[in-house]
């Protein structure tokens, strides 16, 4: 299964369809963009971020455009908004396992965990 993500909009109780996400590989303070994508109707990517064959051990970052998503839904956000981009830094220790990185988000809070 490789690496996957899923975003749920907890303010509206639905998948975060249309949210922009970027995946980076990281090395200390340096981050290298691997890909940008937009989440589908189910708040997921259409394909794994990495499949089993391409997943490698190392450190990564997922950056979610939270403010852009909520603005596109017509949510009135204060300026400056509380959450803009949510960045999750995580490590892949076992490339032979599936890593799922979900995000539960509202304009004012977020949580994550290693899913299955």
UniProtKB/TrEMBL annotation:
EC number, as in UniProt: 3.5.2.17
Enzyme class, broadest EC rank: hydrolase
Domain Transthyretin/hydroxyisourate hydrolase positions: 3-115
UniProt GO MF annotations: hydroxyisourate hydrolase activity
Catalytic activity: 5-hydroxyisourate + H2O = 5-hydroxy-2-oxo-4-ureido-2,5-dihydro-1H-imidazole-5-carboxylate + H(+)
Subunit text: Homotetramer.
Family the UniProt entry places it in: Belongs to the transthyretin family. 5-hydroxyisourate hydrolase subfamily.
Role noted for this protein: Catalyzes the hydrolysis of 5-hydroxyisourate (HIU) to 2-oxo-4-hydroxy-4-carboxy-5-ureidoimidazoline (OHCU).
Protein name: 5-hydroxyisourate hydrolase
Taxonomic source organism: Acidovorax benzenivorans
Gene behind this protein: uraH
């Amino acid at each position: 299964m490789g690496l996957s993500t899923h975003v749920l909009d907890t303010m509206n109780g639905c998948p975060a369809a249309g949210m922009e996400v970027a995946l980076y590989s990281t090395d200390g303070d340096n981050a290298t963009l691997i890909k940008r994508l937009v989440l589908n109707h189910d708040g997921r990517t259409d394909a794994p971020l990495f499949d089993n064959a391409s997943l490698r051990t190392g450190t990564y970052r997922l950056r979610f455009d939270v403010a852009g998503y909520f603005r596109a839904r017509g949510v009135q956000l204060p300026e400056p908004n509380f959450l803009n981009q949510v960045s999750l830094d995580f490590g892949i220790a076992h490339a032979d396992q599936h890593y799922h990185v979900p995000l539960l988000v509202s304009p004012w809070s977020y949580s994550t965990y290693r899913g299955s």
